[in-house]
C-alpha cells in the first residue's frame, strides 16, 4: 500500500460509503409486500478507503463495475458524503463547502453534459464564465487556449444538441477548464469516441497536467487513457484498494509473464522442440510458438530471469535479433475484472 503524503492536495481517510437499498421479492406479490412492509438492506460501496494525491499528479482509478470508483469520485467532488471517514480537497470538506470546492475543481462525466442543449456552445461557455465570475480577460485567454488545442472553432456557433459525441466531449472538457481549476476529475472521458478524437483529448489532458500542473483524477476502462495520461494507478475491487502505486510497479507486482521474440537468421524446422529441451528446467513450462523466422517464448519472470532464458535459447538457435516485451497493463486489468488477479506480492522481476 502506498504511504500517505503529508500536505496532499486530496486526502481520503478511512472512507466508507453504505447505501440503503430495497430488498423485495419477485413478481406482483413481492411488489405488494414491499409496498406495505418494506424491507431494506445495507450495501457497502466503499470500505475504509485511504489515499493521498499530491498536487500535479495524474492518477487513474481502475476497477470492475461495482468496485467503488465512481462513488469515490462523487465523494471527492462533493456530490455525496461518506457514511464514515473523511475526504478533503485542499483542506475543504467537498460536500459541506460545495460552492468553494467547485471553484477549485473541474469535472467531466463521459455521458453527461454541462452545456445547455439548445444554446450555441459559445453561449453555454459564456454563461459558465458568468456563473464562475471569471474576469473577462482571463475568460478570453482560457477560451482561446482551449479553442486552439481542442479545435473548437467550427463548433462554437452550433447548438449542443447538434454535436456528435466526440465534439460535445471536447466542448465539455473546455467548459470544465474555463475557471482554471487546480484539479480535474474525469469519468470515462473518451467513452464511445473514435480513435482520432481520443488521441486529441488524451494529448490535451496530458498537456494540462504536464505544462500547467493540473492534478488529474481519471476513471476509465480504456487502457490507452490510463497509460497515456497517468503515472500512478489505484486498483479497486469490492469497495477497497488492492493496489496503489506507479504503472511500472503494478506491472512488476502482478504481471506473471514475459515475452521474448527471437528472430532467426534461417528457418529451423524443429525450433520449438529444441527450445523446449533447452528450457526444460524452467518452471512453470514456458509457452513456445514458432511463426516463420520468429520463435516466441512466454515465461514466468518471477521464477526465471530474462537473461537466463535468452542465453539458453541463443545457445540453441541461430538468433539474429530479439525483442523483450515489458509487462502489459492490459492483462493485469483483465485479471482484475475477471476476479483472477492474485494479490500476493510477486518476486522481483529480473
- Assign the CATH topology of the largest domain: Rossmann fold
Radius of gyration: 25 Å
- Shape designation: globular
Mean pLDDT: 86
Note the gap between the termini. 22 Å
What does the model show?
Mean pLDDT is 86; it is low at 1-6 and 345-350. The longest helix has 18 residues, at 195-212. The chain has twelve helices and 13 strands. The chain is globular and about 70 Å long. It has helices spanning 27-36, 69-77, 98-102, 121-131, 136-150, 165-177, 195-212, 223-229, 247-254, 271-278, 306-314, 329-338, and strands spanning 10-22, 40-53, 58-62, 84-89, 105-109, 183-187, 215-219, 232-237, 240-246, 258-264, 287-291, 294-299, 319-325. The protein is α/β, with parallel strands linked by helices and 350 residues long. Strand 8 (232-237) and strand 9 (240-246) form a beta hairpin. It folds into two domains: 55-251, 3-Layer(aba) Sandwich (Rossmann fold), CATH 3.40.50.300; 256-326, Alpha-Beta Plaits. The strands form three sheets. Strands 5-6-7-3-8-9 form a six-stranded mixed sheet, with helices on both faces. Strands 11-12-10-13 form a four-stranded antiparallel sheet, with helices on one face. A three-stranded antiparallel sheet has the order 2-1-4. Helices cover 35% and strands 26% of the residues. Helix 5 (136-150) runs antiparallel to helix 6 (165-177).
Amino acid at each position: 500500500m502506498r504511504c500517505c503524503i503529508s500536505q496532499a492536495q486530496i486526502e481520503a481517510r478511512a472512507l466508507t460509503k453504505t447505501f440503503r437499498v430495497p430488498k423485495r421479492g419477485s413478481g406482483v406479490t413481492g411488489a405488494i409486500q414491499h409496498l406495505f412492509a418494506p424491507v431494506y438492506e445495507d450495501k457497502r460501496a466503499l470500505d475504509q478507503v485511504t489515499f493521498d494525491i499530491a498536487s500535479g499528479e495524474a492518477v487513474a482509478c481502475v476497477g470492475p463495475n461495482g468496485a467503488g470508483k465512481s462513488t469515490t469520485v462523487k465523494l471527492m467532488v462533493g456530490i455525496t458524503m461518506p457514511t464514515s471517514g473523511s475526504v478533503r480537497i485542499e483542506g475543504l470538506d467537498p460536500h459541506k463547502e460545495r460552492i468553494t470546492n467547485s471553484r477549485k475543481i473541474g469535472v467531466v462525466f463521459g455521458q453527461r453534459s454541462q452545456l445547455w442543449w439548445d444554446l450555441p456552445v459559445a453561449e453555454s461557455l459564456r454563461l459558465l464564465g458568468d456563473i464562475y465570475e471569471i474576469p473577462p480577460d482571463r475568460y478570453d485567454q482560457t477560451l482561446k487556449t482551449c479553442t486552439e488545442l481542442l479545435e473548437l472553432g467550427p463548433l462554437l456557433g452550433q447548438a449542443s444538441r447538434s454535436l456528435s459525441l466526440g465534439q460535445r466531449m471536447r466542448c465539455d472538457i473546455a467548459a470544465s477548464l474555463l475557471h482554471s481549476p487546480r484539479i480535474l476529475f474525469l469519468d470515462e472521458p473518451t467513452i464511445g469516441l473514435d480513435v482520432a478524437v481520443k488521441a486529441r483529448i488524451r494529448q490535451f489532458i496530458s498537456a494540462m497536467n504536464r505544462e500547467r500542473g493540473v492534478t488529474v483524477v481519471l476513471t476509465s476502462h480504456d487502457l490507452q487513457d490510463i497509460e497515456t495520461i497517468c503515472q500512478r494507478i489505484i486498483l479497486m475491487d469490492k469497495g477497497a484498494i488492492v493496489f496503489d502505486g506507479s504503472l511500472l510497479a503494478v506491472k512488476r507486482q502482478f504481471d506473471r509473464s514475459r515475452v521474448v521474440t527471437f528472430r532467426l537468421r534461417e528457418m529451423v524446422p524443429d525450433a520449438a522442440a529444441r527450445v523446449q529441451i533447452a528450457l526444460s528446467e524452467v518452471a512453470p513450462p514456458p509457452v513456445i510458438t514458432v511463426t516463420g523466422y520468429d520463435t516466441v517464448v512466454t515465461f514466468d519472470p518471477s521464477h526465471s530471469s530474462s537473461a537466463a532464458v535468452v542465453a539458453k535459447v541463443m545457445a540453441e538457435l541461430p538468433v539474429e535479433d530479439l525483442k523483450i516485451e515489458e509487462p502489459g497493463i492490459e492483462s493485469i486489468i483483465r485479471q482484475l475484472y475477471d476476479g483472477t488477479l492474485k494479490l500476493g506480492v510477486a518476486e522481483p522481476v529480473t
